[in-house]
Amino acid sequence: MQGGNGGTRKVRVRVKRYDPEKGFYTREYEVEVDKYSTVLDALLSIIESQDRTLAVRYSCRMGICGSCGMVINGVPRLACETNVASLGGDVVEVEPMYNFPLVRDLVTSMDSFFEHHRRVKPFLIRRDEEEQFRAEREYMQRPEEVDEYLTFSYCIMCGLCVAACPVVSEKPSFLGPQALAQAYRWSIDSRDEGAVLRIEAVDDFDGVWSCEFAGSCSKVCPKGVDPALAIQALKMQVVRARGPL
Does the residue 184 lie in any domain? Predict the structure, then answer.
């Protein structure tokens, strides 16, 4: 539907909602948008002027915090970075992220996601712990050493890669693309000395060996992290650590 008010138009936002007591149901709202409006803008407009009961998680509104992950027109995306105009058509379909336990409406629980992240020890590990916390100066790196892991450090933990992963949907115990990519990111950091510990955490069928290299995780990543590539490189790291058969 085209509008004549300063380039605005009306779209229908169809939201798949969830109530712990009622289960799933769908509500449709008519929202006025312009060429700059994002899906998050549309949802906040709904909350402000039509339905204050709609539950949405968001924070920075700048594609930095990763809080507003959801499924938009069948694809996991950040609502704050998804322009309504870019979707085409006059209907926007919104669902909670796949592969996550539901809390309410578009809000999902991230508890297991964060637990998987913690399992791979996503921090610098040094053999000398006292030196690590009492270091006299920073750990130096050459530019080429930074380049090794830089792409993988851009992860904002939004969970979109997990929502897109077909393995997670069948096997919730799978560590998932986010955690595995971060295991690789920290293990190849020249300042780190804890790769062996991470390899122990990922070398099983809940870890790297469940990845089927579908690539859907990398396709939806809003920061270009490419977790699929990281996982394949991590597999090679595990094989090398095992040594000759």
Answer: yes
| Per-residue H/E/C for 181-236 | HHHHHHHCCCCCCCHHHHHHHHCCCCCHHHCCCCCHHHHHCCCCCCHHHHHHHHHH
* Closest by CA position to 44, among listed 54, 35, 36, 34: 54
Domain coverage including residue 231? 111-242
Residue 186 near residue 124 (C-beta atoms within 8 A)? yes
Considering the domain architecture, whether residues 103 and 214 belong to the same structural domain is answered as no
CATH number at residue 216: 1.10.1060.10
Q: Name the DSSP class of 47.
A: H
The tally of CA atoms less than 13 A away on the side-chain side of residue 1 is 13
- Measure Cα distances from 106 to 51, 65, 203 in Å: 14, 16, 34
Residue 115: phi and psi, rounded to 5, are -65, -40
Tell me the Ramachandran region of residue 146: left when phi exceeds 0, alpha when psi lies from -120 to 50, beta otherwise.
alpha
| pTM for the structure as a whole | 0.93
Q: Which residue has the tokens 């000395």?
A: 193
Total domains, the chain: 2
Same domain for 119 and 85 = no
% of residues, the chain, pLDDT over 70: 97
Residue pLDDT, tens place only, 123-180: 999 999 888 888 888 899 999 999 999 999 999 999 999 999 999 999 999 999 999 9
Q: Which two tokens stand for residue 239?
A: 């094989």
Distance CA(49)–CA(109), nearest Å, equals 27
Examine the domain organization and report whether 146 and 69 are in the same domain. Answer: no
Radius of gyration of the chain (CA): 21
